[in-house]
Amino acid sequence: MTADFAIVNARIRTMNPAHPIAHAIAWEGKTIVALDHDVQAACDSTTQVLDAHGAVVTPGLTDGHQHLLQGAVFAQGLDLDRVGDLATLRERIARERERIGPDAWLLGFALEYAAFEGVTYHHSLIDEVAGPGPMFLYALDVHTGFVNDVALRISGVDAPRQLEDASIIVCDSEDRPTGELLEMAAMRTVLDFVPEPTREDRLTWYAKTIADQNAVGITEIHMMDGDMSTIDSLRELEVREQLGLRVLQHHFIYPYTPDEEVQEMLQTSSISGDGWQADGVKFMLDGVIDTGTAWLEYPDSHGEGLEPMWPDLSLYHSRAREFQAKGFRIATHAIGDRAVREVLDLYETLPKTAARHRIEHIETSPDSTVARFAPLGVTASMQPIHTRWVAHDMTDPWSQRLDATRCGHAWRSGDLFASGALVVLGSDWPVAPYDPRMGFFAAQERRAHDVTDPRPVGVTRALTGLQTLEGYTVNAAIAVGAQNERGMLKVGYVADLVMWQDDPSVVAPADVVELPVLLTVARGKIVHRA
Ligand SMILES: [Zn+2]
Fold it and tell me: Is residue 265 part of a domain?
């Protein structure tokens, strides 16, 4: 046994409670073979030895909720992150039209609801600057699409339509579509007319995104969407040696996903590559609070929020049972308090298997719901960075939909952690930036690093720095049943690790966002070096 690589003179936070701090680590192939005083014996003249000069090493970070491949495609369009007013939005759209030419589809993403400054969307707000070609903008949460008149015309969307689930084509008082499309089935009425990029283009974008994410310390992703074609992409990236991080795919099942397709997906829990597996499934039980599509215990300030995304709840239940019987890990998007409760009710009735089920987002929940996660063994998959669109003073579109009690119960990652629940952290990119350092800040400060109001969102516990690191490492491994392979730096475990200028779990939150990421190793291979 000879190590290929070793890091010495480091401060290694192993996340292994039996041996929390080490100073040297060595690995052979993709496996850690030695720590501390055993490292020297594991090395010979062929081993590459890196002197860390006191830098900090942690396990590689897992983004516990992300849309890696979709994000890579979105990133080719207009990034509207942090555009907060209509004038800037118009200017950015006009500039993008100039860049892409008069006829191309103008595609944008990460649009904040606040950019409309409280005005109800109508395509006439945008038509002129969007120019002669079609336009489709995704809201930041990918739950709403905003289109121009040309896009509506090309798609033949000119009247209200009954859709397969609770999605809505918003229309004015004369039944003419306004260009606002609530939820995926509504967005698809227009998206179906957007030309598909070629496979080669997509694969190039995916590889670039993966490398960019390695550069901020990410070595694993719980990918919350996908289907059979996604598996094809992951396979191809692996063949090309461009899959520099592990992907755990969760098939996305809609109420209208054809049975034939579901049957095919049900067979994938036993197939995998070296860097990917497809043994998860994702359902979306509700939408989002900002547009009234979240499922709430009692109505929001617009009298909305009383419908689940699945019109026939028993279909969601039976689909979940089919997948759990095949050993799948079930993830359900549940944002409103009612949705979260309903998912827990379902999970409680499922037979116990090795797979740990999970709830994604959990944006507002009362104490009685928070208390159920730990005893039921349900993973709380949280994205503290989503507090970036919410203000302490409750003047933002999210808070305006809710009352003070439900705003107070926002993103209770600290409370869930304290209750003994398994909390896994992520970004939901391209919904929010994937950089985990922004996540470290938001988890501890309960707000974004780039807002002026320093007061936290909600009135609940923040996570500590160490809890945050657990949420990105050990907890993420436990959530997918990989606690004996990953999430810690321990002999026999996979060499997924990151070297930082300083310890991200200890530095002041104000400093973590700019903390240099010196080296990222995924499955024993160096995938980033500053
Ligand atoms: Zn998501």
Answer: yes
